[in-house]
Queue: 4 jobs
Job 1
Amino acid sequence: DAGVTQSPTHLIKTRGQHVTLRCSPISGHKSVSWYQQVLGQGPQFIFQYYEKEERGRGNFPDRFSARQFPNYSSELNVNALLLGDSALYLCASRPGTRPMVDTQYFGPGTRLTVL
Amino acid sequence: AQSVTQPDIHITVSEGASLELRCNYSYGATPYLFWYVQSPGQGLQLLLKYFSGDTLVQGIKGFEAEFKRSQSSFNLRKPSVHWSDAAEYFCAVGGGFKTIFGAGTRLFVKA
C-alpha cells in the first residue's frame, strides 16, 4: 500500500503570492493533519480534519486554510505569503476513529521557499 | 500550557555505545507521549508511544522509553547505537486532535 503522498515536493514562491499544497492519505484513513516545520524546529500543528470537518486548529493566522475532500485527500492553502512561511509542510494521516491511539503516518513533506 | 522540551540540541555517540535522549513535558492531564525519528529527506516515523500501563515502552529499531510522571519525563534509550540511527529525534505530547512536538535532538554517530 502507498503511504501518505504530498505534492509538490518543492515549491518556490514570492512574497504576497498564494500557494496550495496537496496531500493524499493512506487508503482507508479518514483523518488528515497538517504541520509546519521551520528549519531547526519541531513540527507545529496547523490543522486536523476528520470526515471532511475541521477538528482542530493551531495558532496560525487566517491566511492559512485547509479543506478535505470526499475522497479524504486534503489541500492546505496559504495566502499573502511571507518570508516566514518558508518551511517544510508535513501532512499526516490516521484512520481517524481514535485521534491519539491510532498511529499517525507522515508524508515526506513539501518544501516551500518564499523569496 | 502544553509544551515539550528536549534539552539537547545535538548528541554525538560512538557506534555500539548506549544512547539516552531526554524529553520533559508540560501537560495538564495524563498525556499521550510519542517519540518520532526523522531522517534527511524522510517523513517522520513513529518509534514508540505511551498512553497508560507499563511505564517502560518498547518500540521499533530496538528503542525503548520510560515514562516518569514525578519528573514529567519520557526519555528515549537504546543499548547499542548503529550508524543508521543518525537522524533527528522528536519527542511529542498529544491530547485530543493536537500533537505538540519538541524542537528535536540531532543524533550523530561516530565510527
Job 2
Amino acid sequence: GENVEQHPSTLSVQEGDSAVIKCTYSDSASNYFPWYKQELGKGPQLIIDIRSNVGEKKDQRIAVTLNKTAKHFSLHITETQPEDSAVYFCAASNPPGTYKYIFGTGTRLKVLA
Amino acid sequence: EADIYQTPRYLVIGTGKKITLECSQTMGHDKMYWYQQDPGMELHLIHYSYGVNSTEKGDLSSESTVSRIRTEHFPLTLESARPSHTSQYLCASRAGQREQFFGPGTRLTVL
C-alpha cells in the first residue's frame, strides 16, 4: 500500500532562517498533497496543499513544491518566526478517489529566538 | 475556522469502563474520520464514514466502534477500556475533495 516518508523528524532553526521539510510517497497515482500544522493541544490545521497538476504553490512565507517524477514534495517556510514552532505533517491522498489520506510521521519544528 | 467539535477534551477513566467520544460538525460534511495519534506524533486512521449509515474500518486495527446515524454526528465507542487504549483521538471531516478539517482532539487516559 501507499507509504509516506517524512524527514527530518525534528528540526531546529534560528529565527529568520528558512526551514525545509521533505516527504516521499510511493503510489504514483496519488494526486493531492496537503500539509498540516499541529500546535500543542490542538488538532492539525491545513496550511497549504498542492495537486499533482501543479509543480509549486506559494502562500506568503510558505511554499510547497512537488516533483512527480521523483515522487517527493517539500514544505518551505521562509523568515521563520517563533510562532512557526509546531509539528508539521505531510499527507498524500490514497488511493485516489477514496477520500483517505496517508500521513507522514511528522516533523517537530522549533524556531529559536 | 472549522466548526468541528469533540467532547470531552480530556478523559481519565478506569479499566473496564465503557466510554463514548463525541464528534460533531456543523458544516454538513458527508465524510468523517477518526484518527488515533501516538505520543510519538503519528496519525493512524481507525474509522471513516462516507455518509449516513456508512462506516468502515481504517488502516489501524482498533477495538473501538463507530456509528453514523446523523450527518453531523460520528461518535466513537469503547465497550471496555484498557490501558492500551490510552492515546489522543482526533476526529475530522470533509466535503467531497475539499479540505479535511480536524477537531481539537480528545486525550484519553485509561488507568
Job 3
Amino acid sequence: SQQGEEDPQALSIQEGENATMNCSYKTSINNLQWYRQNSGRGLVHLILIRSNEREKHSGRLRVTLDTSKKSSSLLITASRAADTASYFCATGGAAGNKLTFGGGTRVLVKP
Amino acid sequence: DAGITQSPRHKVTETGTPVTLRCHQTENHRYMYWYRQDPGHGLRLIHYSYGVKDTDKGEVSDGYSVSRSKTEDFLLTLESATSSQTSVYFCAISEPQKGGLAEQYFGPGTRLTVT
C-alpha cells in the first residue's frame, strides 16, 4: 500500500498560473520529498523537507509540511509549459534510507 | 541521470523465461534500489541494497531476486517471468546522510514486456 496519496490525481492549468498539489500520509515520518517525472523518464528529486520543518522554498517551488495533519503541499508558482510532468511525494521513515512513494499528480501546463 | 545506467532499456520476453536487468552507477553511492512503476500504483520498492552483498526485500519482492557483488552494479532477476511482471523498472541510488535523510537519483528505466 502507498504511504503517500497525492491529490488531485490530475491538474490542468494555463501557463503563468500557480499549481498546487497535496500529499497525505499515514505514519510518522523522518522526511518528505517531492520528485518530478517527465514522460518516459526517471524521477528527478525536487526538494526534501525534514519532519521538524514547516516550509521550504526552492526557486519557484514552495513545500509545506503539517505533521499534525500528516500532509504536505507542493506549490509551483508562475508555471511554464516545461513544468508539465507527474509529481510524486515520497516519505522516509526514521529507520534506514527507504522511501515510500505516492501515486503521483499529473500536471499539464497549457501554453 | 546522475551517472546511472540501466540495461537493457527495452525487453520483450516470454512467460516462464528468466530475465536479468542491470543497474550500473558511477557515483559510488552505498544504497541502490529497484522499483517497478505501474499505472495506478506509483512506484513500489522491489528490493534494495545497503552495501556489497547486503540486500533486503521491499514491498513487492515475490518473484524477484537481486545481487550486488560490486558497489557499482545491482542486478534484478526475474527467475520465471510472468505477465504480471510487465512493467517499467527503475533503479535508484542514494548516499546515506545523517539522520536518515537522503535523496534518491533515478536511472532512465527499463520497459519490460512479458508475453
Job 4
Amino acid sequence: GQQVMQIPQYQHVQEGEDFTTYCNSSTTLSNIQWYKQRPGGHPVFLIQLVKSGEVKKQKRLTFQFGEAKKNSSLHITATQTTDVGTYFCAVRGKTSYDKVIFGPGTSLSVIP
Amino acid sequence: AAGVIQSPRHLIKEKRETATLKCYPIPRHDTVYWYQQGPGQDPQFLISFYEKMQSDKGSIPDRFSAQQFSDYHSELNMSSLELGDSALYFCASLLRAKGETQYFGPGTRLLVL
C-alpha cells in the first residue's frame, strides 16, 4: 500500500505565482525523494532528503523534510511554464539500492 | 551522457497476446528496476534485478516474468495480456555501489485492445 499521501492532487497557478505540494506519512520515514514527470515523460529524480528538518534548495525549488520525518514539502517560487508536470514524493527503502514507492503525485498546471 | 534505453517505445497488442519489453541500462549500471504506471497514476514497482539475479519483487502479476542478462539488459515478458495491462512501463537503472539515484528510461507505452 501507499506509504505517503500528497496534497493537492491538482494545482492550477498563474505563471509567476508560487506553488507548494505536501507529502504526508503516518509513519516515520527514513528518507523522502522528489521526482518530476513532465507530460508524456518519465520520472526524473530531483532530490533526496534524509535528515530531520532538512531544507535543500535548487534554484526556485525548496524542499523540506519535517522535524518528525513524517512530512515533506516542495515549494516552487514564481512558477514558469517549464514547471508544468506531476511532482511525486517517494520513499526509498532503507538501502541505497532499494525500490522506490511513489506517492500519488501533484499535477501542476501553469497558466501563461 | 548515455541514458536508459527502452524498446519498443510504443506497443499495441490484442487481449491474450504476449509482449516483450526490453531495457538497456546506463553502461556500468548493475541494477535494473521495472515500474508500471497506469493512466493518471503513480509508478508501481514490479520487480528488480542485481547482477542477473532477482533482488526484489513487487506487485508483478504471475503472467509476467522478467530476467536480466549477462550484458545487464533486462526483458519483461508479459503473457495473456489483459485490457488492464495497458500502461506505461518504465525501466530504471542504478549502480549499486553508488546508490541513491535511479535513472528512469523513457518508458514503453503498451496498449492492449
